[in-house]
Amino acid sequence: MRKLNDKNALVLFSGGQDSAISLAWALDRFQHVETVGFDYGQRHAIELGARRAVRRAIREAFADWEKRLGEDLLIDATGMRDLGETAMTHETEIMLADDGLPTTFVPARNLVFLTLAGALAYRRDAGVLVAGMCEADYSGYPDCRAATLAAQMEALRLGTETEMRLETPLMTITKAESWRLADQLGGAALVDIVNEHSHTCYRGVRAERHDWGYGCGDCPACVLRARGWAGFRSGA
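Below the sequence we write its predicted structure tokens.
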């Protein structure tokens, strides 16, 4: 069984709040950190721009992290849009579907992302994948759950005959606690970067600025982010 360098990490980086904090977490722990993102035909490209903005701001604000932050790769996964409509890939109403899952659920998206990231880690000798999935305070997607991700990592291990592990630093904490983690990692400077430059809103709204960042304010992602920010600021 091949073993990759566990001092190198590859972060699944969307440009959202969770992946931005996970990137900082990785930069605080690993000698060399690269990022990978996915253009899966999402209904707006705002988060793809947020990826560049967050990386740039981190480089400018943290000299030690700037030395550790390596390449970024954006992978074309737009074929996922052709599989069927979701509120993340088409102008479809954001609501609960008949199966009890939000219409923003893109079936198996994170499993595809992990597979592609694992293939890249194999090439880049990165023994650790880092991702921002969370099952403590989230929209209920089954491919965000720890058990699902563990099964996919075992498939990657067997399918590549390579030892690599997945770290999900936000898995068991709330959004408020993730803001506190950002504060612990990089103080007010990192909190400000995540607040100003990361993007969470499902509708891609950047015209309206709230105290918790930009967004429409009423989609599930904005509601979770706003609630987490309020909890962080209040100390709850």
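The beta strands are 2-3, 8-12, 32-39, 69-76, 128-130, 162-163, 165-167, 209-210, 213-214.
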